Amino acid sequence: MCLSKLVQRCFGAGALALAMLSPEHGAAAETKNVEEIVAAYKAQHYAFAERLDTCRPFEQSFDDPLSGQVLKREVLGQSDEGCRMVQDVYGPERLLCTIPAPELPAFTAAWRALADNIKPDGSYRIQYSSSNPDPLTQFYNSEKCKQIKKVQ
After folding, report:
1. Number of domains in the chain
2. pLDDT > 70: what percent of the chain?
């Protein structure tokens, strides 16, 4: 397995830029590959946000850049309480959330912001403060989300 594929598999598209230093690859080919991977990753975020906006059922698998695992997220559809979604988290659980209709626009805007914060080399711009967490972290840590067991 070439270095770039190993880095991409283990660390995600952002780390692929490091593989461009490898003498076995031409920089132009690797740059194009990184751009394609990053564009696809951003498109996944935007597609999920679009489905959340309308609360239409949708299932999406994605390569998690931090763990190297393939994880899944789903928009389950509308319930009496709001739009229901579920996503894999690290470990044997999934996170089940219900987004009330008045909060849905801010929640989907936060998902779009995730995509907007992916830089052209695949790295993220992350700002985190435990005293003032971002909107998604606040929501995921609220009573509107609960951990459930993954069905094997």
Report:
1. 1
2. 74
CA–CA dist 9, 6 (Å, integer): 5
Q: Count CB-CB contacts under 10 A for residue 72.
A: 13
Query: Range of 49's domain?
Result: 3-149
Q: Which of 120, 110, 121, 71 is nearest to 91 (CA)?
A: 71
Higher pLDDT, 30 or 41: 41
Q: Is pLDDT above 80 for 10?
A: no
Q: Which residue has the tokens 């739009």?
A: 83
23 or 141: which leads in pLDDT: 141
pTM: predicted TM-score of the whole model, two decimal places: 0.70
